[in-house]
Design goal:
By secondary structure, the chain is α+β, with helices and mostly antiparallel strands. It has helices spanning 8-23, 26-47, 72-76, 101-106, 142-168; strands spanning 53-60, 63-70, 78-80, 84-85, 90-91, 94-96, 107-109, 115-116, 122-123, 126-127, 130-131, 136-138. Helix 2 packs antiparallel against helix 5 (142-168).
């Protein structure tokens, strides 16, 4: 009783890797993988960025005023920098250009007791104002969540890119 293995697919895969390493296009492959990872990062960061357009009517100096909030700006402000190659690796920077993105991601302090006219109780559809009660507002941790997803899927992203690259360059 014995076990037989067909190593043809493995040999084809090995030959494809040899072609890749000898073609001089390892940097192009590296760039493709890094850009794929950056795309996954941005997608996940956008999904975790709190968003919503809303308006609040409030009373200030005896007049009803409206304050508009639009957090869609932060979601649309995710960007990927230029690919940079050094001797052994490539990298790309992913960032958010919104001025308050870091506060939204990491959390921020607030002044307890500060009066804000657009929070508090609503009376006839008009906010009556209220005072801040908490010293700290927790962040949404968009960066950390996106990084976790990329790290979890990095191997799969690389395998998919490698199979595609080998196939495109005459491999199995």
């Amino acid at each position: 009783m014995g076990v037989e293995f067909n190593l043809k697919d493995f040999a084809d895969f090995r030959d494809g890797l040899i072609k890749l390493s000898q073609s001089g296009n390892i940097q192009a492959f590296n760039k493709e993988v890094v850009e794929n990872m950056a795309s996954v990062y941005v997608r996940e960061a956008k999904l975790n960025t709190p968003v919503g357009k809303r308006s609040v009517k409030f009373m200030q100096r005896g007049k009803i005023q409206t304050k508009y909030f639009d957090s869609e700006h932060t979601r649309q402000s995710w960007s990927v920098g230029k690919y940079q190659l050094n001797n052994t690796s490539g990298k790309v920077e992913v960032f958010n250009t919104s001025s308050y993105a870091s506060f939204l991601n990491d959390g921020h302090r607030q002044e307890v007791g500060r009066f804000l006219p657009w929070i508090g109780q609503s009376k006839g559809g008009v906010m009556q104002g209220g005072r801040l009660k908490k010293t700290w507002v927790d962040g949404a941790y968009m960066h950390e969540k996106a990084e976790k997803v990329v790290n979890k899927n990095a191997k799969r992203i690389m395998e998919i890119a490698l199979k595609k690259w080998v196939k495109d360059h005459g491999g199995y």
